[in-house]
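ok trying this again, last paste got cut off
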Amino acid sequence: MSFSGIRRELNFLLSKDKDREFRKELKHLLGTLPGNVEYYRCAFTHRSATGSKKTGHNERLEYLGDAMLGAIVADYLYEKYPSHEEGLLTKMRSKLVNRITLLNVGKTMNLDKFLVSQVNIGVEGKFILSNMVEALVGAVYLDLGYKYAKYFVVNILLKDLLNSDIENLEYDFKSKILEWGQKHKQDISFVSQQNNDKETNPVFFSDILIEGIVAGKGTGYTKKESEQNAAKDVWKKWENIDN
């Protein structure tokens, strides 16, 4: 066998080993053996890693996964809370499927190890990981069907959140902003003022400053609440920035 032939054989064997390891990791993640692993390769690939190609990245799967995730969570909430009105169910679903929630789920499950991207995972609207989580749901649906996709979402992906007090589910946005500032060496500070409402109750108004520039505003009946709302304002702005 020629040298080039030997090299091709070695590359083939290495490829088989990588494929076998990938399947093993997917089984651990999904709780079952995957069928077509190419769905998952695509789900984990950000468009920045595909150059000028219009296919091979996860945006179409993200679109599908977003719809499936919303449907699955709506289905689950409808069955679990038969006495809840439409408005409350909608708010609960929104808390479970928004990009901040999915970003935290992705980090908690260490899904970033699967991500193929030429862009660093940031917080300033670069919700690449949360988009990948949606794409993963789309991949599970295409590969294993709606029934297993629902099982995966309810019993693996969102299990802890679905077993929590969803109605009062909230995140500590201030801590997350401060953590981000420390990680990226950005100075984060809060400036708060106290006034009174029409009933003379104290009301606090807070600005959050990043490197001395006002990035968000919040109000509340305590200083803690107003700072939390200011931090939440920043996260919401970042969330709405396209990747």
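PB: full thing came through this time. The chain is about 60% helix and 10% strand.
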